[in-house]
Amino acid sequence: MNANTTTDTGAAGSLRFAVLLATWMQSANLPLPNAVLRLIQGSLSMTDDQAGWIFTAYLAASAITLPIAQWLAARFGLKRVYQAALALFMLGLVLATVSTTPLEFIGARIIQGLAAGVLGPLSMGIALETLAPEKRMKFGVTLTAAVLLGIATGPAIGGWIAEHFDWRPIFYISLPLSAYIFMVIALLLAEKKADKAPTYDFFGFTSFTVAMISLQMLLDRGERMNWFDSPEIWIEALACGLGLYLFFVHVMTRNVHFFNKSLLRDRNYVLSTLIFFAIGFVLLSTMALTSPMLDEILGYPPDTTGALTLPRGAGMVGAFLLTMRLPERFDRRLFVAIGVALVIYANWLMLGYSPLMDWPPVAIAGALQGFGIGMSMAALAKVAFSTLAPALRPEATGLYNLLRAYGSTLGVAIVQIYFFNNTQAMHQALGANITPYRGAASMSLPALEGINHLVTHQAAFIAVIDQFKILMVAMLVVSPLVLFLRKPAATN
């Protein structure tokens, strides 16, 4: 970027607005189909286990390109790579709207995710270079808030559009936004490229990525393929094990790689990253469970289903901004503890959901969970990086966000597995009580179908509650780590 970008207030402001919009857009498109899963499944003849891929495909794809975004910009040019990512994102949007099979739709989501993994970090890079150093931290908070706002508003936007039109137009809203961002970048962003080709640890990156993607495919495909009775699952398990083995050997035997061993020596960073991983595990998994529960089991329309994610989002964004604005004299460890406790309590409230409930319990539990997540994220951002050397912070930030992304994608996959298993088990347990001696023998076929439908809904609802228990346990497991955090130092 040219040096005069920071002095040209109008151009710099337009660039910041454009990348802020891109940050919101790529974040909102992740949960955008959440409130309309039933419509998508019916239109594309998509099975229940395939519905989980709508989220995991986007997340896993973005986790592939996220670590190499800065290298791509340095190697091929920031402007060129950013515009290519926008074009790829628009292609994914168009392909999603014209999909006629589950495979086509999942492929479109993968394309969107690959582009989103590049847009996120490069948007931050473009924005920060248009600002004076003393203003960068404040705008970084704004960018993170835009990510949270996207996650919060995506389902509500998708639900409202689908209720009044159809599910396919939910992706149209991002096409003019992408075109506007593309135009602003083309007109105002000067090309920036490294003087010489940068180096990158592709062996470490590839081995780690192969391991995580193989694990993701194993979890996503395991139920459908009957687990280790399938050669495919064995191949994915072996690829995951081999990838992890090569990655850890590489890290322990090489001095230069994309994962800096020095980060492991900082206790606050390691513990904060583990807690952040658990927050990622809960963040999207709750949404992936709540919206189908409201839409498919309780019969709420898509616009209401989407709107009930807004209290959670409002709590999340509000708590994040409030906690980031707290004076330095307040110990952030206390707010990490309060945030984690709120998330646990909110998930405990979710265990009390009932098929007879109205919407307030969902709104209250969602708002409390969102407030806890937002508070924890803001406080952890301070705790994690305050004890790190400034030279390590850019690399640490990338790894920190990458593990949150993997936490989300693995969380969605795991709750989907247990949901289907528990639904089948509960269906068998409930159905076993329907015997000829309880009147079933004298019922007509439509009546028996109605009973089976009722049993299926009851089993699915119980299975959803069981998954909220898994999310609560995940936060309980990491909660003791808060006690071992050191008091943050003043940020440099």
Automatic annotation (TrEMBL):
Domain of life of the organism encoding this protein: Bacteria
Domain (Major facilitator superfamily (MFS) profile) spans 15-491
Keyword Ribonucleoprotein on this protein?
no
One Pfam match: MFS_1
The record's subcellular locations are: Cell membrane
Query: What does the UniProt keyword field contain?
Result: Cell membrane, Membrane, Transmembrane, Transmembrane helix, Transport
Primary site of residence: membrane
Q: How does it sit in the membrane?
A: Multi-pass membrane protein
**Gene3D superfamilies on file:** MFS general substrate transporter like domains (1.20.1250.20), Multidrug resistance protein D (1.20.1720.10)
InterPro entries in alphabetical order: EmrB-like, MFS, MFS_dom, MFS_trans_sf, Sugar_transporter_CS
Q: Give TM regions.
A: 53-74, 81-100, 106-127, 139-158, 170-190, 202-219, 231-248, 269-289, 309-327, 334-353, 359-381, 402-420, 459-485
What protein does this entry describe? Answer: DHA2 family efflux MFS transporter permease subunit
> Which species?
Pseudomonas izuensis
